[in-house]
Amino acid sequence: MYEAQDRPVGVAITSVHALILDGSGDHAAMAGYAEQLAQSGLSRDAAWAWSQAASAAGEGRESAAAEDYLRRVVASDNADATLKAEALARIALAHSDFATARAHAVTALGIIDGRAALADAPDLRHRIATERATFELLLRDACVADSAAAQLDSLLRHRPPAQQPLAPGTAVDDQRAHWRDLSRRVESAQEDPFTLATLGADLAAVERRLRATEWTREGGSGGRAPFGLADLAAVAGCPLLVVARIGRDAVAFHHDDDRTERVVIGAWDQVLADMGQLTRGCARLATGGASEAAYAAVRSLAMDLDATLGAILPEEAGRELLVVLDRGLDSAPLTGLPRIWERAARFASLAVTAPVPQQPALPARPRVVVAEGPRLQYAADEAAEVAQGWGDDAPLTTGTGVSEMIGEADIAHFAAHATLRWDNPLQSSIHLHDGPLALTELIRLARVDAADRPRMRLLYLSACSLASAPSDAVMVGAVPMLAERVAAEVIASSIPLPDEAAPAVARAVYAAISSGHSAAAGLAQARAALGEDPERTGVRAALTCLAAYVAAP
């Protein structure tokens, strides 16, 4: 198209994008297009193209060419500040100047965090901060010669900063109502194909307006810096297991009693593939595909990973564990590993930071909201049982009442299906009888206490797959963001939990909470109660993918 219109600049930019997508690694061609852009006076675009050429040359292990391209980025008059910082960091790494590389990576992270702090909504903030992944990896490369403790401290200390609390915007009630109506119609079976296409376009337009106006920030900058290793270990009060990408490897760290150990699990891409295969295998078992071959494949994967982690993670059934996972591993079913199965494991993401260190205490008489949804056989029984367990403190609602009650709730339990949006996880929705409830709505309705921490103690998402998360290096799943802004602890699954098993699991969780323990402890008790009965293989597989999520401070 650009060629037909005789627009060489457009041709150059799209050609670089095409070379990136086809993976050919033709850095010389990219460099040629960068030169064209520079000669056209587009120095900013030229710097970006030089940077892409440098990455391609680096992948091909042509270090001299890569450094030449990077120096052109540095020399560019109008290159973005983060692009220059990346080039300087990569040049320093090439010469093993780790201190200089660290300094440039930290500078770039500060710039990115400053830009992200201007975002109105958490999903927008995380999208703006996708550049963080590049500099997080650069910083880790600059720390490869450090001790295990120093390396882990840097990983934790350079997470995104906690954000200031968000306050509801104004004049958006009609847009939210319009979104709910459109979502209900799109998901119904009553609209013809032509109308559905029109509704889809309308829905996208409303979502854009909501993202632009839904929230206004109370403050004007990011919040407190994340804790490093010593402070996080002290607040957690239990051992830490951290799994992160360093270079091309997935590396696990275990910290307990002032001792830090690390082990390479395997190639990062292979570990991601194994986690995806393990989740799919559990889903097959949970939905009745419990063949011997399927079970053997799942068990083999779990046992191999368990054996690798055994080098640093002791078997301590019953002892709490905080597991912090890198981007792309948010929904990894690590509870299926034998050495974690009976532990009260809480899961956190390296991509989010809790606003304050301490979780809110559960009041003696907690305010509990229980909501159910349609097309779920045991939803009414589960919701009624949960509500009855809390007595008069648990109003039971099927829809609109949630909006009025959720802001004051200490515990919210949803026995309902959900639709996961991979392109924008926070636009995922929970299906109630009167229509969908978007996760953005939950964040809008949630309240913070005097210490700016989420007031809700537990958000329990039963019978849906909202814990599923993108397996790429930049996107953040919905549940980590809910743990950051809505509730101190979020229970969610990456695969559907069998309807008939949900009430028993909920009973175990709430029994643990009411006796002063964590929701994670309740899940561990529910897993342990299953035993080895082969008739319950499907339930065990589903519980492998059900976890308690928190935001690490």
Automatic annotation (TrEMBL):
Pfam families in alphabetical order: CHAT
Domain CHAT per the UniProt entry, residue ranges: 368-536
UniProt-recorded name of the protein: CHAT domain-containing protein
Species whose genome carries this gene: Nostocoides australiense Ben110
Taxonomy of the source species: Bacteria, Bacillati, Actinomycetota, Actinomycetes, Micrococcales
